[in-house]
Amino acid sequence: xxxxxxxxxxxxxxxxxxxxxxxxxxxxxxxxxxxxxxxxxxxxxxxxxxxxxxxxxxxxxxxxxxxxxxxxxxxxxxxxxxxxxxxxxxxxxxxxxxxxxxxxxxxxxxxxxxxxxxxxxxxxxxxxxxxxxxxxxxxxxxxxxxxxxxxxxxxxxxxxxxxxxxxxxxxxxxxxxxxxxxxxxxxxxxxxxxxxxxxxxxxxxxxxxxxxxxxxxxxxxxxxxxxxxxxxxxxxxxxxxxxxxxxxxxxxxxxxxxxxxxxxxxxxxxxxxxxxxxxxxxxxxxxxxxxxxxxxxxxxxxxxxxxxxxxxxxxxxxxxxxxxxxxxxxxxxxxxxxxxxxxxxxxxxxxxxxxxxxxxxxxxxxxxxxxxxxxxxxxxxxxxxxxxxxxxxxxxxxxxxxxxxxxxxxxxxxxxxxxxxxxxxxxxxxxxxxxxxxxxxxxxxxxxxxxxxxxxxxxxxxxxxxxxxxxxxxxxxxxxxxxxxxxxxxxxxxxxxxxxxxxxxxxxxxxxxxxxxxxxxxxxxxxxxxxxxxxxxxxxxxxxxxxxxxxxxxxxxxxxxxxxxxxxxxxxxxxxxxxxxxxxxxxxxxxxxxxxxxxxxxxxxxxxxxxxxxxxxxxxxxxx
Length: 624
Ligand SMILES: Nc1nc2c(ncn2[C@@H]2O[C@H](COP(=O)(O)OP(=O)(O)OP(=O)(O)O)[C@@H](O)[C@H]2O)c(=O)[nH]1
Hints:
It comes from Nocardioides ginsengisoli. The protein is α+β, with helices and mostly antiparallel strands.
């Protein structure tokens, strides 16, 4: 069927619209399935079909993860006498691609709100994973119709029978109702499209009411400014309208509306149930926030669509340029990234050890790694980052409360209690690993809430864990201890009072701010010993003895010594060659430039880099 004969945006009867998304655990084949659907519906031709059409950013393609969700409009004709029993005719399928990672749960939940149904995609060789469950619960919470699909049935290791049963039990249907696909070969995908038409409810909305549209994504484009993706719920949005963002009351001139199919196509308007984009000349995604409701200023809606949430950073770290001259470049780069990332926060900070940099806030560790990688790659920066930490609440005896996002802001004085954020974590793993996982969670101060068998040999374990423990190497350890079989999902669930202390590292009595960490009392000693030992190896001997101490307040908990040497560069130059002496002295000065002074102690820049890149407070492995 040709695309041009399909119903046009703004003139599409809601009864033929089907809005759906695909939810899956990472790598279960969501992007591949999306590509296959684009191809089958004729939206992307065979030849131009490049792998993973929807994942636009290079990093996304390389890492194989999807960060930004997008909506694609696909016309689909159901033929008479199809096996699935779908009503023949031409339909408009709007597919919303959702990010799969836990850091982006908020974006997932907003894109779910834009749909009537979710395809729950599960790898037929892996079975249900933690994010399958987490996303399913989100989808059920949003009242979506669920279509269970087992993908990768072409794999020799696929176990269709076992996992179809698992999936059917989870969703509450018969194993026969689980659809089978291979996104790679295309088997089963046509049937899936027909089932979408048959099973997914058409959108309902009031065409005559004032316009209300939900923003489910917003992306910065260098040439066009912010492109905002919306789902129209009531009324219509026309390219002539002036629109209003309901959370802020800000008014914007509309420059363009349209649909993605799969490139942007301008339209006169978008009507009830349709998804598409709008462009207003806004230059910053923070002015067009995911979750906000758009209305038309000439005829305003009074009630926004439910549940707008401001994304709050949960993990903080200092980012410093290795070359101090790059500071302005780093600032510009962060500003540019923020145009496209409403959740990224940063503010300038100075560190005695590292110089000028920024304290940045992220949704989680993956968000942090991606941001750092983009800074290094797209802006050619060499960065050093301090160990990440979460946000602590320090309650003083005099009743004041300090919000601490940086160990160096940890207050002095009489502390009544320190509260730390906790998460509800779900871990799915083969039953053989129950003991190993329990041990790890115990070590990370976890509390077992409950455990269920999903099938004979797979369990779901539910824990509360301090977010600070998860933020470091928990996931890496979980993966390595379970040979990659365990999967993890977590969500913020409040906070708790804990025995936390700030450990300072001192060189010759001077604290080195970059190494201070807030850790649990029981882990303080090992952190101190580890850091002191490491620095002893990394800092060259000086002309005087340098004590390295780890301390909680005034109490020293670990100590190492760097013994003195007298490095007399002129020692070899007895005799009188003055030019040679001068050259050696010059050379020594050069070397000193890359040294940082901590009190009287010269520390090579590399020592900071090495000490920070190989250690978080939990003594974790290097983060690439
Ligand atoms: N054999 C086989 N491989 C598949 C199939 N579908 C996807 N894959 C492969 O599985 C890997 C992951 O697929 P993606 O489509 O990137 O997975 P995804 O769910 O989009 O991953 P995220 O975007 O990270 O959430 C890729 O190497 C695909 O080529 C399938 O049906 N059969």
